[in-house]
Amino acid sequence: MFHTIILIGNLGRDPEMRYTPTGQPVTSFNVASNRQYTNQNGQKVKETIWFRVSVWGKQAEVCNQYLRKGSKVLIEGRLTPDPNSGGPRVWTRSDGSSGASYDVTATTVRFLSTRGEMEGEVGGEDLPEVDAGEDIPF
Asked: What is the pTM of this model?
């Protein structure tokens, strides 16, 4: 069996890196994927889906070094279900509405923002793609 997910979005906050007890680096960040469409009534609808992304190994270190809040990325990986529900992580917001996020374990992260965009400047070089390869623990 096989499944993969590909998403493009922007980081909602700076990445956070930590190390497992065995010394394996893991970086976590949130990615928002936005979509806009016109419904049957002719009204524009904006939709945002949040993904919680985990990156392992050397790729985790590179993501932590180069990515910042607002960075545009392409993530390729696999969905990781909530152990309690088997689906997305569901919670109740402070205003009482329901929210959900999807956990993704990344196998590939491509940096789509230029270095200048990440530093708040115009122009700059594109950052390299990093592939996790065999660094993902199973």
From this structure: 0.76
